[in-house]
Structure formats: C-alpha cells, structure tokens
C-alpha cells in the first residue's frame, strides 16, 4: 500500500468515527474516505464545508467534486459527494512541505541551495494550483516532491554553512548592476547572483534590490542607490560571521537576523560611524546629509564631528555634512511619524481585475508616503517600492491575478520615514461571471390587487442589489425582500445585481396592478352626438373611440345582453370599436372588463341621421345677368359649414351673404354643406353673364296690302333677343313709329306700319332699338 493510500485510509477512518452530521443531513461514509450528503432545506455549501472539511471557505471544493459549476445548481434534496480523505490528505501534505521549505530557508537554503529551494517552492506552488483545481492526488504527489526538494536544500545549506562568506541577490525589480573588485565596468546582476566581498551593487531608476546574507539578514536597496559589501567573513571553527556594508548614496532598509556573539553587522557611511544593535533600521546618504531611522527596541549609535547620538525605537536623526565639516555636531534627533492606519482594502480582502488600488488614513504632518507591494509577507520578493506619494493612495494598473502583500510608511518634512504599517494581504482575482440572481415574487405578468407589492428573491452573497435604481439590503445568505409601490396598469421592475468584480446580472420583471374599482370611460369629443351618451351615425355602422383602462376587454351589448361588437384597449387605454347599427334608435350597454375580471358598464344610445342640411336662398338666382357682380344670400340649417364654389364661407347663426364675380358666358354656382354624420346637401345654379348688346345684321322695307309698309330687321345675340323692338320710318317730312315682333322661325323682327299712299315710295327705316334677354340695348340709326 502506498503512502498516499495509507494517508487517505487514515483520514477516511477518522472521518467515519468523528464526523458530526447535523440534523436533516444524511451522510454515508464510504471505504475510500468520501462522504455522500443529501442537501437539507436551508443548508448552504459553507455549512457542509465547515462540518466535513473543518473550513467553510472550502465550499468550492465540494462544488467542484460534485461536478457542478454554480451555487444555483445546489438545491434541497441534491446528493453531493465530498472526498473528505483526499482533501484532508492534500491539505496536510501542503502544510508538511511548507514547514520543510521554511526549515530549509532558516538553514540558509536561499543562499547556499538556491536552485533546490527554488525547485521546492515551485513544486509547492504547483501543488497549491492543483489543490485549487481539486486534483487531490496530484496535490499530494507534488507536495511530497516539494518536501523532498526542501530537505535536499536543507542538507546542502547545512553542509555549506562553514564555507566562505557570500551574499545573494535574492530579489530584484528593474535594472540592478554589480561590479566585482577585479571588474572595470558595471554589469547586470541576475536574480540569485552570488555577491562577494568588496563587490559593488547599484540600482537604477525605478529599480530595487534585496541582498540576503547567509544568516537570512537582508538589505533592501531603494531606486538610485549604491552600496559596497565591504566585508563578508566566516569563522568555520566558531561559526562567527561578520558583514559590513558601505552606503555610497541612496538608501536601504535593513532587517537583520537575531544578533548574538557570533554575528556582527555594521553600516559604514562617509564621515559617519555607526554601531548598530538594532535589527530593523533605515539609512539614507547623499551629498548634504546622512539620515537614520530606528524601528527596533535595540539601539543605533551614530558618531560624527566628535559627538554621538543614540536612537531608540521609532526615532530618527539627520547628520548635516556642512556642520560636520566645520567641526560642529550638526545633528537633529526627532521622533518619526506613526505608522498609517485605516488600510483599505482590509486584510485578506479580494479585489477584482488586474489593477491594485490601495488607500489609507492620512497621517498628520506627513510630507509623503512610502508604499511597498510584494509577492510574500516577508517582502523578500518585491513587486514595487514607491517613495514620494503625495496623497494617501496608490494604484498599480497591471498585475497578474494572485496574492499580494502591502504596507505603507509616512515620512516627515525632514524626509525621515516612520515605521511601516501592518502587512495586509490582498488577493487579485479575475471574475467575468455574472452573479446568480433569482426573482421569486412577483411572478412574470402577475396581476396584483394591492398597490404594495413585495419583491423577493436571492442573489450572490456580497453582491450589491438595486430595484429600479434603489439599493436593497441583502441577508447574509444573499436573500432579499423589499416593498414596491405599484401604479395602476403595467409596472416594470428593473432588478440588478452587481458582484464585487463589477459583473452585472439584470432581470426585468413585468406585472400589472389592477385594483377592483370602476374605471373611467371617456369617448372622444369628435364623435357625433345628439346629447351626452346619444351618438349619431349617417350609415349602418358607427365607430366609437376613446380612452379607458389599459389592456381591457371592451364589449357592446344589446338589450338582450348579446354582444354586438368587441375590442381591446391598448397599453395606454386607447380603444376603437365598430358597432353595426340595425335600428335607427337603440340603447346599448358599453362594458369594460379588466384582466382581473372586474367590469364597468355605461348605457349609450345610437341614432341614425340620413337627412342632409338645407340651403335656402333669400332670392332665387337669376338665369341671366348683365352685371359681373352676383350677390348670393341665404341660410344653412343643420350643417357644419358651407362651401361656395369650393371656398369655405363664414356662417353667422347659419346665415351667409357672399358676392361673386362672374365671367362672361355661363357660370356654375355650387353650394355644399355637410352635417356631423356625413350627410351632404349640394345646390347648383347656372347663371349666364352677358354684357354685350344685340348685333344688327340688316333690314328691308316693302309696300304691303292695304296702304301698309312691311318692315323686317335681322339681328342676333348670344343670350337671346327680346320679343319686341320699337322702330321709326321716315316718309317725306313725316315720321311713322311702331313695334316689330321677333319671329323665332325666321330669326328676325317683323312688323307693319300704315303710311299714306303717296308717301310709300319714299318711306325708309330710320331707327330701331334692339334689346336682348339680359337687358342690353342697341339703338340703331339708319341714314
């Protein structure tokens, strides 16, 4: 039996003996160490993880082991299989390998067995990834190999503890260069490069470097810093260690291993001597001054210009070079600012996306802030070290998902940084899945009778929920309930859930609020009616339009209660219903029924009007006129208006008085009036306008029997000639008059006049007057 099988079997037996199953849960422990659980009502995955795995945060492992993707798939009665033995074995294997790695590091593996310890850490990281993916067997195997590599690293480090002194470039971010004593030029220093005595190390702009000594003491060089490893000595017999670092320019933060008689560490700065017992301090050197800050209870003694100062915990000092040159003390000792508080996000919080956003409470009298972000809580694998932040916030726009650690310090106007804040862990995650969201009430298209509607449902715990833009508080399990005030008719709920990653799930739910009360029925004012509720039509059908409740059924019933027409109102309550009219005057019931079944009725009447308006003229229009102006005057009864030859004329109390201009010849005069139901009256007249007198064509005078003279005159006219025409005949010195009569057959005027016998021969027609039917006259004189 393999070690893994024995471990799984042992965990299975322990699970079977000691696993406590809460009421309502049925648990069957299998021989392979798994537990079969039936989900009870009200039970969550966190509950099951706490009972069976000892950690409620392991609920994703249960979901993954059961072949499910989301919490929504877990319902009461669902059967889950929990591989308790495998998960526990994986967890224990990871803890064991981590302990071995830490032991190797304490033995100096990072300096003397860098490859082996790197391999151990890499295998451990792979095991963690497999653990998160639910690959329990792979996790145990990788963790076991990590432990073996850590053990090998430990053995190598232990064997080399008695070797020559060396340090290691254990971390670098950006451009880091070194220069050995025999080198003429600077060259790049790779990660884990070994550093020897008298080697120079410098960081360029934006770069940091960590130097780790064999006893795990370390220095963190800030950007634009230059240091020299003056001494690295080891006494193999007594295991004595000595390290001395000279800071040429820039600054570094030192975190030293616990001191004893076998260990000695010192910092050298031009013109300044130090004696350092502290295990945590900061140093800066430039052309104007040297600055120190001590963060340990143990002391830092500084000597310059013939005097010295001792720094206690959280005290700083500035040594001014100009004063030292003059033989003056030139020192300033002051307490440093306290560590910032109010760190946001809080410890172990999760941020989503690739951007890291940090914030903290402002520190009084701070001139700026110094932030450090690392991959590990010991800040041995630095991501960024940023000095000079003017505001209490920091953002890093692009980081890989994973776990990071950060801390911040405030520095005063003298440029002395105070102690760093507590180390805070933050996890960056990429989450693109929208949160789970379920609406229990109201149901889709549900009809509510009360205005106060309860909105209930469930979403992902920790999400932010709004209903129509208003925030709603969630319970710890993600359930919610709120009261929504509905309006009559259709209502829309816009429910949105936003998880911490900013993913959105939105549900729009439509329902109707239909209170049991009579609704208004408003008919359009344009419908013809005799009085209120008595509508008129000019045909066999009437179209009734108006507004009432939205989405209601509309019926028109006859006296026997039989439906004669039906329709539905739209979403705004508008309706149009066409009713056949079988009788000139009937009563109907107009009924509006809501979707709830509640009805409102109203009695209406419909009458049939087929009589058109009347048009009465005050004077009958003449058939023939000789004037171009024609006055038309009269009255319209029961008509909505009057059109005269296509032109709308004004009516005053039904009266009209218009004047028309006639054109020569025939003119049609048309008057049209319509009533409200469409009945139309048309009155037409023909009027001829003639202003031209008759045309004289010729004449003849002949003797007739009985001493008479026969006279004939021919003429023509477009509108007709008058029946008679007076004339005058001249015989000698005497004149004789008479009347000619129009003969339609010959189209001429004829007549006789008595003239003495002796004068007939000399008689001639001297004058005739022609008149047409329009009254135009022509006086014809004949010479």
What's this model, at a glance?
The chain is mainly beta. Helix content is 14%, strand content 46%. Residues 1-28 have low confidence and may be disordered.
The largest pleated sheet is described as: 14 strands, mixed
Helix content: 10-25%
The name of the CATH architecture of the largest domain is Sandwich
The tally of structural domains comes to 7
Strand content: over 45%
If helices are DSSP runs of H or I spanning 4 or more residues, what is the number of helices? 8
Radius of gyration based on Cα positions: 58 Å
CATH topology of the largest domain: Jelly Rolls
Protein architecture, described:
There is one protein chain. A hairpin with a 2-residue loop joins strand 37 and strand 38. The chain starts with a helix and ends with a strand. Helix content is 14%, strand content 46%. Strands 4, 5, 6, 7, 8, 9, 10, 11, 12, 13, 15, 16, 19 and 20 form a 14-stranded mixed β-sheet that branches. A seven-stranded antiparallel β-sheet has the order 53-54-57-56-55-58-59, with no helix packed on it. It has a six-stranded mixed β-sheet with strand order 37-38-44-43-40-41, with no helix packed on it. The protein contains eight helices and 59 strands. Helix 2 packs across helix 3 and helix 6 runs antiparallel to helix 7. The protein has 783 residues and is mainly beta. It has seven domains: 161 residues, no CATH class; 169 residues, Jelly Rolls (Sandwich), CATH 2.60.120.1440; 81 residues, Immunoglobulins (Immunoglobulin-like), CATH 2.60.40.10; 77 residues, Immunoglobulins (Immunoglobulin-like); 87 residues, Immunoglobulin-like (Sandwich); 76 residues, Immunoglobulins (Immunoglobulin-like); 87 residues, Immunoglobulins (Immunoglobulin-like), CATH 2.60.40.
């Amino acid at each position: 039996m393999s070690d893994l099988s024995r471990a799984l079997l042992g965990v299975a037996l322990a699970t079977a003996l000691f696993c406590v199953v809460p009421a309502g849960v049925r648990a069957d422990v299998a021989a392979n160490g798994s537990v079969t659980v039936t989900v009870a009502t009200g039970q969550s995955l966190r509950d099951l993880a706490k009972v069976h795995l000892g950690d409620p945060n392991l609920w994703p492992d249960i979901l993954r082991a059961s072949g499910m993707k989301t919490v929504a798939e877990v319902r009461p009665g669902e059967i889950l299989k929990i591989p308790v033995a495998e998960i526990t074995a994986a967890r224990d294997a990871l803890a064991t390998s981590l302990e071995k790695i830490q032991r190797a590091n304490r033995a100096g593996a990072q300096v003397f067995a860098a490859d082996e310890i790197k391999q151990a850490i890499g295998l451990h990281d792979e095991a963690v990834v497999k653990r998160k993916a639910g690959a329990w067997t792979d996790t145990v195997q990788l963790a076991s190999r990590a432990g073996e590599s850590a053990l090998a690293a430990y053995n190598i480090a232990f064997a080399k503890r008695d070797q020559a002194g060396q340090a290691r470039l254990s971390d670098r971010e950006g451009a880091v260069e070194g220069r050995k004593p025999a080198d003429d030029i600077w060259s790049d220093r790779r990660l884990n490069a070994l550093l020897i005595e008298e080697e120079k190390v410098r960081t360029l702009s934006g770069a940091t470097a960590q130097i780790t000594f064999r006893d795990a003491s370390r220095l963190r060089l800030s950007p634009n810093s230059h240091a020299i490893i003056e001494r690295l000595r080891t006494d193999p017999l007594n295991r004595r260690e000595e390290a001395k670092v000279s800071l040429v320019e820039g600054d570094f933060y030192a975190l030293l291993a616990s001191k004893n008689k076998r260990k000695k560490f010192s910092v050298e700065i031009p013109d300044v001597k130090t004696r350092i017992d502290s295990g945590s301090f900061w140093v800066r050197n430039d052309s104007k001054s040297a600055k120190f800050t001590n963060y340990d209870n143990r002391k830092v003694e500084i000597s310059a210009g013939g005097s010295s100062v001792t720094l206690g915990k959280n005290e700083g000092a500035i040594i001014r070079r100009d004063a030292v040159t003059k033989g003056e003390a030139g020192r300033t000792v002051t307490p440093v600012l306290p560590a910032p508080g109010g760190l946001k996000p809080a410890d172990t919080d999760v941020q989503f996306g690739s951007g890291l956003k940090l914030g903290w409470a402002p520190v009084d009298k701070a001139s700026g802030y110094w932030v450090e972000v690392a991959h590990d809580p010991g800040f041995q694998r630095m991501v960024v070290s940023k000095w000079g932040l003017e505001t209490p916030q920091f953002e890093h726009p692009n980081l890989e998902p994973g776990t990071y650690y950060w801390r911040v310090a405030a520095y005063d106007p003298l440029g002395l940084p105070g102690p760093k804040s507590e180390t805070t862990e933050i996890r960056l995650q990429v989450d693109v899945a929208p949160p789970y969201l379920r609406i229990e009430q109201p149901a889709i298209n549900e009809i509510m009778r009360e205005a106060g509607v309860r909105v209930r449902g469930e979403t992902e715990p920790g999400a932010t929920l709004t209903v129509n833009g208003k925030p709603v508080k969630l319970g710890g399990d993600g359930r919610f309930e709120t009261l929504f005030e509905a309006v009559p008719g259709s209502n829309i709920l816009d429910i949105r859930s936003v998880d911490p990653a900013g993913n959105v799930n939105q549900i729009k739910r439509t329902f109707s609020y239909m209170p049991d009360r009579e609704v208004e029925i408003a008919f359009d004012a344009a419908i013809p009616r005799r009085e209120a509720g008595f509508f008129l039509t000019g045909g066999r059908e009437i179209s009734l339009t108006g507004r009432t409740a939205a989405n209601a059924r509309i019926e028109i019933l006859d006296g026997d209660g039989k439906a004669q027409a039906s329709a539905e109102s739209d979403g705004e309550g508008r309706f149009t219903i066409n009713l056949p009219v079988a009788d000139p005057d009937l009563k109907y019931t107009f009924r509006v029924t809501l979707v709830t079944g509640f009805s409102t009725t109203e009695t209406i009447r419909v009458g049939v009007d087929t009589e058109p308006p009347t048009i009465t003229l005050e004077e009958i229009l003449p058939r023939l006129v000789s004037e171009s102006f024609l006055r038309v005057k009269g009255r319209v009864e029961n008509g909505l208006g009057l059109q005269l030859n296509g032109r709308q004329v004004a009516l005053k109390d039904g009266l009209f008085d218009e004047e028309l201009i006639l054109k020569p010849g025939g003119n049609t005069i048309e008057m049209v009036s319509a009533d409200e139901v469409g009945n139309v009256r048309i009155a037409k007249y023909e009027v001829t306008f003639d202003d031209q007198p008759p045309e004289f064509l010729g004449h003849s005078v002949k003797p007739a029997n009985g001493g008479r003279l026969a006279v004939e005159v021919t003429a023509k006219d477009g509108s007709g000639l008058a029946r008679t025409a007076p004339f005058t005949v001249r015989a000698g010195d005497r004149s004789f008059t008479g009347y000619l009569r129009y003969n339609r057959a010959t189209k001429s005027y004829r007549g006789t006049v008595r003239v003495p016998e002796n004068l007939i021969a000399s008689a001639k027609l001297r004058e005739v007057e022609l008149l047409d039917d329009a009254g135009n006259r022509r006086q014809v004189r004949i010479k």
